[in-house]
Amino acid sequence: VQLQASGGGLVQAGGSLRLSCAASGGIFSINNNIGWFRQAPGKLRELVAMFTTIGSTNYADSVKDRFTISRDNAKNTVYLQMNSLKPDDTAVYYCYARVGGMNYWGKGTQVTVSS
């Protein structure tokens, strides 16, 4: 399984970004945990948004109503639409998948929100 994240960048507070994660290995053929984590400087990596094995979605409280996770199974891609961005959203964002009991991480993409 390979995960390739893209779409990070620098944006002003209140702006929007969309992250993409292209996955190989056919992980979209069944319901696996797939989604996004983030890690800010000096902080632990935390869940942002996730598709669960039953197809539901989980969001961190801090991003509910601002971020939306979606997927395109035909393109083997999961997206994270981030609106109303805040400086506290500044972090490296990582794509994640759990397949066959194994955890897979993509290389992070930096999101910087200026005030």
How would you describe the overall organization of this protein?
This protein has 115 residues and is an all-beta fold. It is built from no helices and eleven strands. It is globular. The chain starts with a strand and ends with a strand. The model has no long low-confidence stretch (mean pLDDT 93).
Number of strands: 11
Q: Strand pairing plus helix content: what structural class? A: mainly beta
Q: Overall 3D geometry?
A: globular
Rounded mean pLDDT score: 93
Low-confidence stretches: none
Largest sheet: 7 strands, mixed
Task: Spell out the key features of this protein.
mainly beta; single chain; 115 residues; 4-stranded antiparallel sheet; 7-stranded mixed sheet
Blueprint (SSEs and pairs):
Layout: E1 3-6, E2 9-12, E3 17-23, E4 33-39, E5 46-51, E6 57-59, E7 67-72, E8 77-82, E9 91-99, E10 102-105, E11 109-114
Parallel strand pairs: 2-11
Antiparallel strand pairs: 1-3, 3-8, 4-5, 4-9, 5-6, 7-8, 9-10, 9-11
Task: Give a nutshell description of this structure.
With 115 residues, the protein is mainly β. The chain is 0% helix and 54% strand.
